Amino acid sequence: MKRFLLIFSGVLVLAIFSQAVAKDWSEIEMQAKGQTVYFNAWGGSQTINEYIQWAARQVQKKYNVRVIHVKVSDISDVVSRILVEKAADKKTNGSVDLMWINGENFKAMKENKLLYGPFSQKLPYYQLVDLENKKTLLYDFTTPVDNMESPWGMAQLVFSYDSKQVKKHPKNMLDLLAFARKNPGRFTYPSIPGFHGTTFIKQVLYELIHDPEVLNQTVVPCDFEKNTQPLWDFLDALHPFLWRKAKVFPTSASQMVSLLNDNEIFISFSFNPNSVSNAIKNGELPDTIRTYIHTKGTIGNAHFVGIPFNSSARQGAMVFANFLLSPEAQARKADPTIWGDPTVLDTQKLVGRDKVLFDAVPKGIATLTPKELGQGLPEPHVSWVQALEKKWLEIYSK
Amino acid sequence: MSGQAKGRIFPVVVISFFCVTILAGLFGTLLPSLNYLPVIGYTRISLSAWFDFFSYPGIQASFLVTVFSGITASVGVVSLAFLFITFSYGTALWKFFEKILSPVLSIPHAAFAVGFGFLIAPSGWFIRMVSPALTGFTIPPDWIILNDPAGVSLTIALVIKEFPFLIMVTMGALGQLDIKKTLLVGRALGYSKEQIWLKILIPRLYPHLRLSIFAVIAYSLSVVDMAIILGPSSPSSLSVLILKWFNDPDVSFKLLAAAGSLFLFVIVLLSILCVYFMERAVGVFLRPWITNGNRRCFLSPLKPIIFFMGCGTLFFTAVSSVILVIWSLTWQWRFPDFLPTTWTLTFWAKGLMSSFDPVMTTLFTGVASAFIGLLLAIGCLEHEVAAGKTKTRNYTGYLHYFLYLPLLVPQITFMAGIQFFLVIMKLDGYWISLMVSHLLFVLPYMFIALSATYLAFYERVTDQAMLLKRSYIIVLFRVKLPMLIKPILFSFAIGFSVSVAQYIPTMLVGAGRFSTITTEVVSIASGSDRRAIAVYALIQQFLPMVMYAFAIILPKILYYNRKGMQV
Q1: Which residues in chain A are closer than 8 Å to B43, comparing Cβ atoms?
Q2: ipTM score here?
Q3: By the CB < 8 Å criterion, does B43 face chain A?
C-alpha cells in the first residue's frame, strides 16, 4: 500500500510538474511567434549551413519563428562582441540571440555572465537527452553546464586515412610515430592555439601520461613539467617527420581535408565520426578514405547552443533550441548523407515514429559503429588547455 | 569678393569625419592597452599588457616576419613600378596596361590570395601541370612553398597585388608632369629615354606618389586577409596574431591585442619616418649622379627582366582567376590531374542562391558609400577650384594632410576602438553605421582617383558657361560634370570596390547583422571545400568588375553623338 501511494504521489507530482512545464512552454511558444532569431554559428561548412537552413525553414513553418544564420568564421569573434555590448551596458536587443558554442568559449561566457539561463531544463525535448551515458553533456570541458547551454551534438576524435596509401593504420600514438618515420611528410596537425590541434596534443598526453587522473583536476604548475615531459619528448621525435617538417601547420582541421584529398597527407583527423562519409558523398574526398580510433579510446565532447544575456528574442531562441533537440532534427542531423553529427538523445528512450527515424539513418561508408567508437575519453580540465598551448608555443613557435 | 570660397563645408565635414573617427578609434585602443577595460574587470592602469606582449612566445619571429615581408614587398613593388614606367612608358605594353588596369584592380585581395594559393601550392595547378610528366610526382612533394615561415609567398603576392595600384596612381600623377617636353629636351641633349626617366621624371614624380607609397607600406605591414591565406602560420605575422588574440575566448587577451595593434601602428610610423629620411639622404647622395653627364644607362640590361616581371603580375592575377573558375566547376579533382575529372554546376547553383542576401547588402552599401563619397569628393574639389579662382583660403588643401589617415593607420588598431564607442552610443548594428564606416575608407581612394583629373579641367569652359547662365549649380550639373563623367564614374567604381573589399569594419560595426560577400568569403575560406570557396570568391570579384564595365560603357551610350566624349 505504502509503495503504491509513493508511486502514485510521484506520478501525480510529475504530472503536475510536467503540466506546469507544459504551461510554461506553451507560453514561451506564444511569445516566440513572430520573433527573429539571429543564430551565430560557424559558416565554414556548406553541409552544416544547409542543415541550418533546413531547420530554419521548419521552425518558420511550425512555430512562426524566423531564424537567420549569421555565418562566423570563429565564434570567439561573437563572444568578443557580446563582451563589448555588456561593457556598453546594452541589456536588451543584443545582436546575437543564439550561438553555437562549447568548451573554452562557454567557460568564458559563463564566467563573465554573458549567458541567459538556466534555460535548457524548460525545453520539452531536453527530457530525451542522454544525460546518463553522455557525461560530457553535463560538464563541458569539465565546466559544469548547469543548464546554461542546450546540447546540440556530440563529437569524438576520429582519425581518417587513405586506404589506398596506408595498408595498416596505426592503433595508438607510438604506432603513429612509426608511421610518420616510414612516410615522412604525410601527417600533420593544425596549428596551436586552435581547437583541433590542442585536442590532438591532449590525446597524445592522455596516452603517454603516467597518471591520467591528474588531467581531471586543475593543472598543478610545479608538477606540469614532470607530467607533460612524455608529450614534449613525443612531439620532438614526431616533428621532423611531419608535413612540411613542422615548419608550417595547417590553419584548420578543414584545411586538412583538402590535404588528404590531394594526398599531401595520408592520415588526418576530425571531430565528427561521420564527416568522412559526408565528405565522400560531397566529392570532397575519394571513396578510399576510412576512419579509425586508437585502441584505448579517443577524446570526445559535445557541442551546444547558448543564449546571450541581452537577447530580445530569447523565447524564439528557446523554441529553435528545442527544435534542434527534436528526434526529427537530431535524426536528420545524424544522417551522414546530410551532416552526420552524432545525436545527443538517448535513442533507447525513443518510441514509435521517433525510433523509426533513427533506425532509418544510414550508416556512412567510412563511419565506425557506435560500438567501435566506444565511450570517448573525457576532456581534461579546461586549465590544461591554456597551460599546454602556452608551453607548445614556447617550445615550437620560433 | 572677399572672405571664403564657396563650399568650404565639404572639406570641413570630411576632415572632421576623419579626425574624429580615427582619434576615437586610437583612444578606444589605447585604454585597453594600458589595462583599462572595465567590462572584464580591469580598471587599474598598468603596463602589464605591454610586458605580456613583448614576452609572448615567438613574438620576435612574428615581428621579423612582419617587417621582412612588409618592407621587402614595399621596396620591391616601388622599385618595380618605377623601373617599369622607365622602360615601358609610351610603348604598346604601357598602352595595354592602361586598358587592362581597371579590371585587374577590381579583384579583391582575398579572392586573389585564394586563387594564388591554389596555383603555387605543392598540390597546386603549376605542379599539376608538370606532374607526373616532368617531375614523376604521383603524390604532392613535401615542399614548403605556401605559408613558408619567412613569408616569401606572402611577399610575392603582395607585390603582385599592389603593383597595379601603384601604376594606377602613377598614371594619374603623370598628367601633372610635362613628359613630352622633358623627353624632347633630354633627348636633344643626348640622354636616352631611360636616363631621362630615372634622373629627372621619377624624382619629379615621387612627391605625387609619396603618400601612396606610405599607404603601400602601411598595408604590407598590417595586411590580415592575405596573411591568413598565404602567410606563415607558426608564428604568423603580427597582424594575424593580433586578430587571433582579439578573438581569443580568454578575454584578457584583448588587452594584449590592444597593445599589439598599437605596436604595429608604431612600426608603420617608424617605417614611414625611415622612408622620409631616406628621401632626404637619397636626394643628397644622388645629386652628383644626376649631374654627372653620363649618357649611358647602366640599367638597360634589366629591361627584359622588368618587362617580364610587369607582365608576370598580370599573368599571375589572370591565372589566379582562371583557377578559381575551374575549381568552381569541379566535382572531383585529384592530384596530379591537370584538369578536374568530373565537372558540375552544383556549386554555382548553391552559391548563387545562398549568396543572394549578402550580395544585396554589398551592393546597397557599396553604391551608397560610393555615391556619398562622390558627393563629398566633388564638393571638396569644387571648393578647391573656387578657392583657386578667388585666391582665398583653400580648405581642401588641408584635406590632403588628413586624407591618407585611414590608409596609414592599421585597420585593426582603430576599428576595435570605434566599435567600442558605437556600442556605447547604441549606434552599432545599423546599416547607416556600416555604410559610414565603409565611407571612411572609400573616400580617400575616390578622392585620390578623382582629384588630379578634376583639377586639370579646363576652367575656361565653366567660366564661359557662367557668362551664359549665372547659376553655378546649373553650370556644374549641365556642363562640367557631364564633361567629367568618365573620371567620375571611374572613381565611383573604385569607391564601390573599396567598399566591397572591407572586412574588419563590416565585422565590427555591422555587429553580425550584416553579411557582405567579403565576410562570406572569409568565413567560407575557413572551411575546406575549395569549390564553394571558388564560387564565392568569383562572385566577390564579379561585383566590382560590373561597376567598372558600367563606368566604361555608360559614357559611350550617353554621349554616342558627341565625338569629343568618345576618347
Answers
A1: none
A2: 0.71
A3: no
